[in-house]
TrEMBL record:
InterPro entries the UniProt entry points to: Glyco_trans_28_C
Family: Belongs to the glycosyltransferase 28 family.
Protein name (record): UDP-N-acetylglucosamine--N-acetylmuramyl-(Pentapeptide) pyrophosphoryl-undecaprenol N-acetylglucosamine transferase
Residues in Glycosyl transferase family 28 C-terminal domain copies: 257-349
Molecular-function annotations in GO: hexosyltransferase activity
Keywords assigned by UniProt, alphabetized: Transferase
Pfam families per UniProt: Glyco_tran_28_C, Glyco_trans_1_3
Amino acid sequence: MKVMIFVCGEGLGHTSRCISIGKELVSAGHDVHFGAYGYSRELIERKGFKTHMVPSEITLVGKAGSLNLKKSILATFKRGQFLGIIKIRKFLKRTKPDVVISDSYFMGMLSAKSRSIPCYLIVNQSNMEEFFKGKGVSSKILAELVKKFYTGMFKMADKVIIPDFPLPHAVCRKNLDFKEKTWKKVFFSGPLIGKTFEETIAKELEKPHVLCTVGGFGYREPIFRKVIEAAGMDKSINYTLLSGPSVDPASLGTLPENVTILKFIDDQFPYMKASDLVIAPGGHSTMMEALSFGVPMITVPDQKHSEQQNNALVIEEDGLGKMLDYSTSPDVILENIRVLIDDEKYKKKLTEMRELAVELNGPGAVRLLVEEMEN
């Protein structure tokens, strides 16, 4: 079977989960192709997959840690990016896939349906209109248009795949709002992550260990520096912090001896397996990775980002970690780190989530779904 996977390149979470599906399908003997753009395309190519350049679908606009979806949509229309659907239709006519999997790349799904190709849509949010709440009359009108667009996409898809634990455990559940007919074709695959716990060899790190992926650039720099300050208050806990390629670790001054700063790591799974805690923003994919490895989280969601805020709330409500914000003091950060590392109830809960992720086998579940539907 020939499978085309279209990837939304705005955020590498989409890319990593599609790579996990691609690996599974290739291992089962299927002919897998990717349609991607930007850094996402480069990453997929480095993994050795057949990759094709496709037009980007949306231009993200925002500042100071806040996504402005209204301006993003207007900028996208202004650049004429949605006209790329013509290119995608011609591309599908040339490549002739048997099935299309589209991770939040709606031009791919529209093009597939226009050519009567079965299409599976991957999303972890269906309430994008939340971005527009309380932002004036024009935003309210735009919110209704966005909602109608998404509703149409969900109606058109053959299956809507949610890359999360099934209800009631789904971390993204506060971001899901489907009509009754759509719920009937919703499929909770389980986490889709790049590496499983079993196949990962843990990095040799001093224990207990905290992995912080917040990054030290732009609006996230204050919380990054507060984590470093918290580390200096208790030298018995060790830290690996990812600063990002735009930050020179030398600019951070003298670091506590229990802190290691890395700009970037190609494979963070060995670090995650060796860690007792992960500090990260509220991105869905990182949460799926941490839970699949049985590691509790401190989440620091981006400001005014309703999806991340909702994800972080579920992490705290379900006893899987703590939700903090950019105003949190180093003392409170350290207090929460100690609780999550030492409290046995968190360890028990996270072990259950790791075992559930293994049982679900997300990539395998998606492969079986596609194979069954194709047959």
